Amino acid sequence: MASNSISLVKRDLLSEIELKVGKLWEDEQPFKAEAREELGEKFFSTFPMPYMNDHLHMGHAFSLSKADFACAYRRLRGANVLLPFAFHCSGNSIIESADRNWDARDSPEERSDSKLRGRDDIREFQFPYHWVWYMPPSAVEDLKEYGLGCDWRRSFVTTYINPFFDAFVSWQMRKLKSMGKIVQGCGEYKIFSPEDNEPCLDHDRVTGKGVEPLEYLLIKMEVVKPFPQKMAPLQGKRVFLAAATLSPPMYGQTYVGVLPDEKYGAYEINETDVFILTHRAAFSLAYQNFSKIPREPSCLAEFTGLDLLGLPLRSPLAVHTNIYVLPISTTNEVTNQGTGIVTSVPSGV
């Protein structure tokens, strides 16, 4: 009678060969690269340092296999091949992961990081340093089981925990700065973390990876004097409603729209100019040098959209001398991404 079971003989044979070859590589160290006096082909390959806020996954193996296979091919040709490997412990990712463990330290079984659930030492992961001491050695073991042809003498971690790497980066930055290659505030905007007081680049984030700065154009429309009584705190200032658009130019505005129930503020941009917009927009502008007080919105008065209805405005690109603030009803996109103020132009302009 034929059996329905699947034969695992080939799999077991391959696993046996894998163990034997792994032991052979461990004993003979064929991937150590030394300088040679004789001339010959040399090949050097690197792999982007993986972040150590998690275990390695199949995506790493897929990408790494390309470098590994290229090195193996050239090694078979007799080339002197060097493939080092390093681990990225810089940035905010490890700190954010540690913070999540700190928040869940009293109920570890309820935490969201399934990769650590059930570990006896889970509480140690509330400390960022523990990630640095634990994750890289774990990754080395995984890569050895994968069979990576790496010279592990040339493995390292980033951050000042590694004084050699820290000294190299410090020297590099000083050297580039002395050559005028590093300029602070060059005008290229990046995602910034006010809490950490530093740029928060893509792989430094626990959430929001792939998000990039979105460039808007602000259209300044000046409030026509005399101001109404509710805008008395703004006397002596030039006051503008600032509408945001992704599709300039905006010729021939017919009206300006606000959300009647939305909260707006009058924020000092400099000594003379005031923008009326949402707090979220003012906060973002304050980190782009558009605030009387750097990185701190300075609000002179607060309004609702209802307070702004009927205000006469002067827009330099409008056909009419004055345009007026009217109510709109729309989605939260206006306040979540823009300034909470929109402007309308005739269709097709």
TrEMBL record:
| Gene3D superfamilies, per database record | HUPs, Valyl/Leucyl/Isoleucyl-tRNA synthetase, editing domain
Q: List the InterPro entries hit by this protein, alphabetically.
A: aa-tRNA-synth_I_CS, aa-tRNA-synth_Ia, Leu-tRNA-synth_Ia_arc/euk, Rossmann-like_a/b/a_fold, Val/Leu/Ile-tRNA-synth_edit
Q: What SUPFAM superfamilies does the entry give?
A: Nucleotidylyl transferase, ValRS/IleRS/LeuRS editing domain
Q: Does the keyword Aminoacyl-tRNA synthetase apply?
A: yes
List keywords of the entry alphabetically. Aminoacyl-tRNA synthetase, ATP-binding, Ligase, Nucleotide-binding, Protein biosynthesis
**Top class in the EC scheme:** ligase
Ranges for domain Aminoacyl-tRNA synthetase class Ia = 23-186
One Gene Ontology term from the biological process aspect of the record = reproductive structure development
User: What Gene Ontology molecular function terms does this protein carry?
Assistant: aminoacyl-tRNA deacylase activity; ATP binding; leucine-tRNA ligase activity
For this protein, the Enzyme Commission number is 6.1.1.4
Q: Which family does it belong to?
A: Belongs to the class-I aminoacyl-tRNA synthetase family.
Q: What name goes with this protein? A: leucine--tRNA ligase
- What organism is listed for this UniProt entry? Noccaea caerulescens
